Amino acid sequence: MWPAWQASMSGLVEPDEVEAAATLNNLSYNVAAIVGPALGGLLFNWVGAGVLFLVNALSFVGLLTVYWSWWRDGVPKPRARVDFASSLKLGLRTAPGCGRYRRILLDVCTVFFATIAFAALLPVFVRQVLHMDSSVFGILMGSLGAGAVCGAFLLPSLRTRVGKTRLLSGALLVYGAMLCLLPFIRSLALLVPLIVAAGMAWSATVSTLNAAAQLAFPASIRARTLSIYLFVMAGGYSVGSVVWGALADRVGVQAALATAGACVIVNAIALATGKRETSI
Questions:
Q1: How far is residue 154 from each of residues 49, 115, 160, 195, 204, measured CA to CA in Å?
Q2: Which of 63, 92, 155, 209 has the fewest CB atoms within 10 Å, measured from its CB?
Q3: What is the per-residue DSSP string for 30-85?
Q4: Cβ–Cβ contacts within 10 Å for residue 185, how many?
């Protein structure tokens, strides 16, 4: 479902508006990530898990209604029917053959591999380092989401002023700095604004990479190539979580967070100085 959703997003706007659409998509995701768990917790305590899952299933009715009533200007051109296997082969053959898209996938893999350390290790950091409970974990994760929401409103002007490459490298630098500083801070009064700033940087990173992937191929094969983008992103998340968790077991959660931060900063410097060819 997710590749089709991502591809349909860019189909709703003009090509020069895809970056703004990616920002709004990221904004809606982060708002949902903040509001959803809160509403879910209230419903769980009020009506129980069964009704909660039923309400969640019914929430997709609105999405299906939007797709059912979706229309565009003009009459769509009829296209020849292609079986699933041939369609999949076309996407797998086209995406790796594009040098720009390979660089996008490299960016996505390296960025998500390192940045997942925050989400993967935050529960352990809160419990073992801060000696606090799940409520503090919720506050810190909410701070990241709040920062991402705030960042969405600043991105259009920043993208115009500094350009996409400098925006991405600067955002990675901020996020990496947060990971490096996090192990040495114990005060919530300092942690919350630090993570809010990282959330703003995260919003810039995700929307920039997503827009680059959206614009790499025409609409006819966009969903298929985006599926590879999402596969690489999920792979970076999964492998990164395992690696940073294993490293935390060996050297401690603080050292693991700092190491992940250093990896993000190295990536940012490579992009900023042109040591690595950019995909955007």
A1: 38, 21, 10, 17, 9
A2: 63
A3: HHHHHHHHHHHHHHHHHH-HHHHHHHHHHTHHHHHHHHHH---SSPPPP-----HH
A4: 15
Alpha-helical (H) ranges within 216-252 are 219-251
In contact, 203 and 148? CB cutoff 8 Å: yes
Query: Can you read off the two tokens belonging to residue 80?
Result: 């020849």
Q: How far apart are CA 50 and CA 53, in angstroms?
A: 5
pTM across the whole model: 0.80
Confidence of residue 75 (pLDDT cuts 50, 70, 90): very low
Q: Do residues 112 and 233 make contact, with C-beta atoms less than 8 angstroms apart?
A: yes
pLDDT given at position 114: 96
Contacts 24+ apart (CB under 8 A), 117-120: 117/179, 117/240, 117/244, 117/256, 117/257, 117/260, 117/261, 118/144, 118/178, 118/179, 118/182, 118/198, 118/257, 118/260, 119/241, 120/240, 120/241, 120/244, 120/245
The residues spanned by each domain of the chain are 19-65+98-272
Contact 260, 244 (CB under 8 A): yes
Residue 65 has pLDDT above 70, yes or no: yes
Give the span between the Cα atoms of 76 and 184, in whole angstroms.
57
